[in-house]
C-alpha cells in the first residue's frame, strides 16, 4: 500500500491572481499589446504564439466579459480600468476629433 499525502499540510503556495478577464500572464500581455494597437499577428510574433492562439485567447476574454465585438471588448477593458489613460495618448486618439462626423 502506498502512503497518500494529504492536501493542505505544510506550506501552501498561493496561486497568482490576474485581473479580470485574464486567466494568466499571457492574457495580460495580450491585452497590453492590444492596447498599444498591435494586430493579432504582431502580438503572436512578439509573444511567440501562433495567430490562432492569440485569437482564441482574445475570444475567451471577450466571452468572459460578454462583449459581442472587439470594439465592445476594448470599451469594457477601459471601463474596468485595465488600460491606463496615457495609452490613448500613445496611440494617437487625439486625431479622432479631427475625423469627419456622419460619414
- Beta-strand residue fraction: under 5%
Shape: globular
Helix content: 40-55%
User: Termini separation (Å)?
Assistant: 76 Å
Please provide a written account of the structure.
With 103 residues, this protein is an all-alpha fold. It is built from 5 helices and no strands. The protein has helices at 25-35, 40-47, 51-64, 70-79, 86-90. It starts with 24 loop residues before the first helix and ends in a 13-residue tail after the last helix.
Task: Show the helix and strand layout.
Elements: H1 25-35, H2 40-47, H3 51-64, H4 70-79, H5 86-90
Structural features:
47% helix, globular, 103 residues, mainly alpha, 5 helices
In short:
It is built from five helices and no strands. It is mainly alpha-helical and 103 residues long.
